[in-house]
Amino acid sequence: MLDNHFKKEEFKKSVKENVKMLYRKTIEEANQEQIFQAVSLAVKDVIIDNWLLTQKQYEKDDPKIVYYLSMEFLMGRALGNNLINLCAYNEVKEALEELGFDLNVIEDQEPDPALGNGGLGRLAACFLDSLATLGYCAYGCGIRYHYGLFKQKIENGFQVEVPDNWLKDGYPFELRRPEYAKEVKFGGYVKVEYDPATGRNNFVQEGYQSVLAIPYDMPIVGYNNKIVNTLRIWDAQAISEFQLDLFDKGDYRKAVEQENLAKNICDVLYPNDNHYAGKELRLKQQYFFISASIQAAIEKFKKSHSDLHDLPKKVTFQLNDTHPTMTVAELMRILLDEEGMTWEEAWEITTHTCAYTNHTIMAEALEKWPIELFSKLLPRIYQIIEEINRRFIQEINNKYPGNQEKVRKMAIIYDGQVKMAHLAIAGGYSVNGVARLHTEILKKQELKDFYEMYPDKFNNKTNGITQRRFLLHGNPLLADWVTDHIGDGWVTDLAQLSKLKVYADDKKAQQEFMNIKYQNKVRLAKYILEHNGIEVDPRSIFDVQVKRLHEYKRQLMNILHVMYLYNQIKEHPEMDFYPRTFIFGAKAAAGYVRAKLTIKLINAVADVVNNDRSINGKLKVVFIENYRVSNAEMIFAAADVSEQISTASKEASGTGNMKFMLNGAVTIGTMDGANVEIVEEVGQENAFIFGLSSDEVINYENNGGYNPMQYFNNDPDIRNVLMQLINGTYSNGDFELFRDIYDSLLNTKSSDRADTYFILADFKAYAEAQKRVEEAYKDEAGWAKKALLNTACSGKFTSDRTIQQYVDEIWHLDKVTIE
Ligand code: NTF
Fold first, then answer.
1. Which of 389, 689, 709, 791 satisfies CB 3.0 to 4.6 Å to 412 for a cystine?
2. Which ranges in 648-779 belong to alpha helices (H)?
């Protein structure tokens, strides 16, 4: 498998040469960061050869292309992953050792490109890996944020956000392509001109401001197949700077405005996960990258095809949530205004080229732009959406004559707002959810009316993750063990993991499996000691909840349960209790006050519990600072218990749940999102399921909620824990610090429903499930079997499977191989 380019000596020479050229230093004089840059350039050199080969092959084969349009790509570090996919990891590791460097340390020099918030952005990154590995022609299209998701510092238990200046030393894996720049227009007005030659009206945007979109390409390396696809992220540049002659030198004010527009657009990723904030700059970001991407795609299509009517045969635009929904209107604009098509022609093409993925049913995440804002910023696009809406309402009226209720619920523009989800559904040929349960809820609840109108558009694509990053790279010990037992076919065919099932009762295999888990726990314990100064015992149960902080994900229920356990141990010191380490990792959106307070609570409980010598270290609580892709890989590998405890119906899929399972952690969770399918694969007996079902939750919600007070009044354990939020136990006597959390559960003053996420309703069932976890863990062989079976049954959850389903059922792409 060793590529010619990776002859060790040659590689070493190239690293030395790069150090010399970049820094005028010898390898002995260079620091680790400089070595990282030099190594990355050497790797990029190999990648570029394959990138060119891939380009040639695509030109020759002319395969159908999918453009994966996404505001977020949470890529994580590239160096290690590229080496893995080039099958050169071990060779390069050795080469560097011979030069006196440790590849792991070099990898740690790379900033995490964090151009995403959480699941949605990381899914996009996994999809790109799978598309390249399976040999499909795909472009990721996104934004080159100068600042990615903030870095999290914990100060006095509180989250502090620090800017993530990931580009400050230069990012070696990107390639600037100014020759493919595109102009993007904002504001102004639309002039309508009658054209007697065609008998049609022409629509011309005037008085606008322009920004230049400059693409930067990042290589996406397929696994062992020489395919290198492209992630194209757009940066903004003032047009005046770029082409002085093209702009009106006299108009100073406009020039300054254009400069500012360009400066701001790509500044920073909005740090909200599952939440819509409605900021004008966000709308600018959306149109900016969509306009540039669609223009580029059409230009590319036209280079090798003569008839735009064939676009749907050769191109699909996949919309990653509603953020890129502008695509529908921008494509219409190009086909109508620039290509001179009729509305009917343009609509026929658009609605067979766009497809939409829904990633959430959380009402607060739905994008609804005020007409005012929208029409001012994007006058022509708004005009087109108005016409789409007019015709769509006509269609509703034809189907449901006289039913105003349907129009009210389904219109794209209503109540002064543009509803992006409605536009995405009307303007595309496919609507998919991201796990079976989620898709069913979309059909039966959230999008019921649309499903009734377009049943054939709806389909499910259960999410997946790439095993190349989350096992092969993140857990080398387990990866080698798996390969020793079943060969390495699993790297590109994860279903083969089921061959491990025959080892489930094998004592030797169980021991080896748990020994690897132990070593990974030692690795994580070391990281925790270095980064948190907390000593944890790798023989304790590592119980882990890592994901964005959100009320619906219920980190609060987890920490309340820790408080309950602590009370139990204090009250009954003699009680049999298996030592447990509760590990949390989570960023909260900067403006999400309650989420940030929950982080403080976790750290406050950690402070008390970890420093109480009377409990003999039976309980430890750790909040890992700055949870991100790079430390996630290590955390998944070390987990015994995977916390997937969202309020049923709220987590569309979850993907962390899959990464834990792959690494042999056992799930404690609700019947939510993809948990349902995880349990189906691994069996009820190898997971710990508890709590209200999604039907029960939805039922309560449709009937005005439930009364958490009854649990407070009737359950002394719950009451004790809640009282500790307001009696100073975890706040040095400050009764007010955590009162908002207390109030959120019992609603003494807020206008929201009390305990929106059913924490008190599920609390006892959760505690009981945790008790079952403890009992099960004490049975060493029994636990080893459960853990091993989780890995063995995780085959379904590879993003390779997900992508193949998108290809077969939505995109219909052609497979490409490099000759
Ligand atoms: C997220 N959605 C969901 O909350 C997760 O359950 C899911 O696993 C990922 O998408 C990927 O599908 C969002 O982040 C968003 F933006 F839709 F709210």
1. 389
2. 656-662, 675-682, 694-702, 709-714, 716-726, 739-746, 759-778
Contact 181, 212 (CB under 8 A): yes
Q: Write down the ipTM of this complex.
A: 0.98
- For residue 31, tell me if it sits in a domain: no
Are residues 128 and 176 located together in one domain of the fold?
A: yes
Task: Annotate 202-232 with DSSP letters as a single string.
Answer: EEEEES-EEEEEEEEEEEEE-SSS--EEEEE
Looking at the fold, whether 305 and 340 belong to one and the same domain comes out as: yes
Q: Are 504 and 439 members of one domain?
A: no
- Ligand 1 near 124 CB (within 6 A): no
User: Is 10 domain-assigned?
Assistant: no
Is pLDDT of 708 > 70? yes
pLDDT tens figures, 562-590: 999 999 999 999 999 999 999 999 999 99
> Catalytic positions, please?
359, 547-548, 553, 655, 659
CB 478 within 8 A of CB 374: no
Burial 192-215 (b: 16+ CB within 10 A, else e): eeeeeeeeeeebebeebbbbbbbb
Claim to verify: residue 291 and residue 386 sit in the same structural domain? yes
The pLDDT of residue 258 is: 84
Q: Is 655 in the pocket of ligand 1 (CB under 6 A)?
A: yes
- Compute the C-alpha angle 302/305/308, nearest 5°: 70
Confirm or reject: Cβ of 71 under 6 Å from ligand 1: no
Residue 22 counted as domain residue: no
Q: What pLDDT score does 241 carry?
A: 57
Token look-up 């008998």 returns 199
> Which run of H or E residues covers position 107?
helix 103-107
Among 69, 71, 120, residue to substitute to test ligand 1 (most atoms within 8 Å of Cβ) = 120
Does ligand 1 come within 6 angstroms of the Cβ of 125?
no
Amino acid type, 568: Q
239 and 332 in a common domain: yes
Of 16, 59, 7, give the one whose Cα is nearest residue 34. 16
Radius of gyration of the chain (CA): 27
What is the residue whose two structure tokens read 């820790």?
Answer: 562
Q: Is residue 725 part of a domain?
A: no
Q: Output the domain CATH number for residue 412.
A: 3.40.50.2000
The tokens for 398 are 């034809």
- For residues 224 and 293, membership in a common domain is answered with yes
How many domains does the chain contain in total?
2
Q: Which domain holds residue 528?
A: 467-693+757-797
**pLDDT single digits (tens) 311-328:** 999 999 999 999 999 999
For the record, the structure tokens of 512 come out as: 């080896």
* Full 3-state SS string of 271-328: CCCCCCCCCHHHHHHHHHHHHHHHHHHHHHHHHHCCCHHHHHHHEEEEEECCCCCHHH
Take residue 326 and report the two structure tokens written for it: 């502008």
Secondary structure of residue 268 in the 3-state scheme: strand
Q: What angle do CA 771, 777, 779 make, to 5 degrees?
A: 115
Q: What is the pLDDT of residue 3?
A: 52
pLDDT recorded at residue 1: 38
Same-domain pairing of 442 and 524: no
CA of 764 to the centre of ligand 1 (A): 28
451 and 503 housed in the same domain = no
Average pLDDT over residues 269-292: 96
- pLDDT tens column, 741-798: 999 999 866 557 899 999 999 999 999 999 999 999 999 999 999 999 999 999 999 9
